[in-house]
Amino acid sequence: MKNKLHWGIIGCGQIALDKSLPALLAVPDALLVALADPLAERRALARGITGELPVKEYADYHDLLADPDIDAVYIALPTGMHSEAVLAAAAAKKAILCEKPLGRSAAETRAMVQAASENNVALMTAYMSRFGDTYQKAAELLAAGAIGQVTFVYANFSYPALGPYPPGAPGGWRWTDPDGGGPLLDIGIYLAFGLRELLGDRIAKVGALSCDTVAPEGLPNRDTTVAWFQTAKGIPGAFAATFSHAECRILFYGTEGQLDLSKCFSQRPTGHLVCTGKQPFELITDVSETRPHFTNYQREFAHFTQALLQNTPFSPTPEETLADALLLDALKAGGEVTL
Q1: Which of 263, 76, 237, 260 lies closest to 159, judged by CA?
Q2: First-to-final CA distance of the chain
Q3: pTM of the predicted protein model
Q4: Mean pLDDT score of the chain, rounded to an integer?
Q5: Secondary-structure breakdown of the chain: helix, strand, coil percentages, each rounded to the nearest 5
Q6: How many helices and strands (H and E) does the chain possess?
């Protein structure tokens, strides 16, 4: 067994430079050996973070994938480029950690999952929020029955996207990319995996509506998706992902109390959890605490690195990621869909 897993980073944009690169450098049994980006200025920014570490640079990520010294790659490219990069990495026999959402559709996601399986390659999607303190405590309390039987769920992740990401500006693909844009792929994915993991259940039926509330006319993507759902175990709920207002919250109602989880999907380790009922509990995680701002990303890299080195399970599995993609497809389809 190797002492350290050798990593390559594909894509040196904001998320890699600000969070993932310093997070990976902080994992004791991980070693960054190479990075790839077509822009020399972004590679220079990355090298400024790596310091004296002898990291190889590639303008073309295919050259990085051909490097025999690399065991695993982290893909931080725009969503529309995930498929090509994941398929190439699988063919190169590299373990893969890819940013969310893995694909723009269930069909695209299924092709990547199949390629990883056929090449016997580990494939994990970067749901970094699941490594946050409030998120993990919520999962623990719900599994322990802290609010009794869950009877209803309200889930809303929204933010006013017109301000920071207007059409035509950097990030404006949220409005203009007909395949990779819209609130479902941008933020609804968090609710998809969050509901699946926190309930320990899968959503089996949805009825959805997409509409515009604040979006300029003539854009291909709607700014709002609202839905009702029912899980395989019969739990009903309501779901919303929008670009129109600010909220990040999942409320679980039970026969013996309720659990309120909010602000847990930020890039920084924030969150607020309040549980009433059989086990009253409150937990606040704040960015002002003395912990690195990339804590959740560091835990994510550590989880996957240890799983690869020790041949132990990791989560989410490719099959779980595909289930999330199928849910988003159903929500995009509208009407009533049985999964």
Answers
A1: 263
A2: 41
A3: 0.96
A4: 95
A5: 35, 25, 35
A6: 12, 15
DSSP track, 256-276: TEEEEEES-SSSSS-EEEEE-
Which residue type sits at 300? Answer: E
**What's the rounded mean pLDDT across residues 242-267?**
97
Beta-bridge partner residues of 258: 253
Residues 106 and 128: their CA atoms lie apart, in Å, by 21
Radius of gyration of the chain measured on its C-alpha atoms: 20
Q: How many residues does the chain have?
A: 339
d(CA 273, CA 185): 25
Q: What is the pLDDT of residue 291?
A: 85
Give the whole-angstrom CA distance, residue 45 versus residue 12: 8
Q: What is the residue type of 4?
A: K
* pLDDT of 1: 52
Please give the Cα distance from 180 to 183 (Å, whole number).
Answer: 10
Contact predicate 82/99, CB 8 Å: yes
- Residues 256-279: tens digit of each pLDDT: 999 999 999 999 999 999 999 887
Q: pLDDT tens-digit profile of 35-46?
A: 999 999 999 999
d(CA 237, CA 276): 19
Two tokens, residue 230 = 């029912």
Distance between CA 123 and CA 74 in Å, rounded? 10
The two three-digit tokens of residue 200, written as one number: 């320990």
| Residue pointed to by tokens 């073309």 | 60
